[in-house]
Amino acid sequence: MVKIYQTFSDQPKLVSELIDYLYSGQDEKMLTTVKLARLLCEDKDKRQKIADLVTYIENNRDGLYGSRSLRGEVEAKRVLVWSDGEKH
Predict the structure, then answer these.
(1) Does residue 76 form part of some domain?
(2) Residue 8 belongs to some domain of the structure
(3) 17, 29, 30, 74 - which has most CB atoms within 10 Å?
(4) Structural domain count, the chain
(5) pLDDT tens, position by position, 31-51
(6) ∠66-74-4 over CA atoms, to 5°?
(7) Domain range spanning residue 51?
């Protein structure tokens, strides 16, 4: 998420859209939008930053929203620790 903010800090509406895609598990839509932004960008340095973001998304696609999507699948459990006070 930080990389999205860093790359598009001057475009808050785009950041918001990309974050929505991220949280809803629409990684393909997010990637397509970022690639389109890269194509439309006229600034060489910014285009390189966007290209780096594309690479990052492609390489980390599963982990970007995986932990958030697992939240409903994993529940917190209490753990009881029992000790007799002796070192083993």
Answers:
(1) no
(2) yes
(3) 30
(4) 1
(5) 999 999 999 999 999 999 999
(6) 25
(7) 2-69
Number of helical (H) and strand (E) elements in the chain, helices listed first: 4, 0
- Report the first-to-last Cα separation within the chain, whole angstroms: 45
Q: What is the pLDDT of residues 2-11, one digit of tens each?
A: 999 999 999 9
Residue 85 gets the label, from left (phi > 0), alpha (psi -120 to 50) or beta, of left
**CA–CA separation, 30 vs 54, rounded Å?**
10
Nearest-angstrom CA–CA distance, 74 and 77: 9
For 56, residues 6+ apart whose C-beta sits below 8 A from its C-beta are: 3
Are 34 and 54 spatial neighbours (Cβ–Cβ below 8 Å)? yes
CA-CA-CA-CA torsion sign (8, 56, 21, 43): positive
pTM of the model: 0.70
Residue 83 lies in a domain: no
Amino acid in position 52: D
Amino acid at 66: G
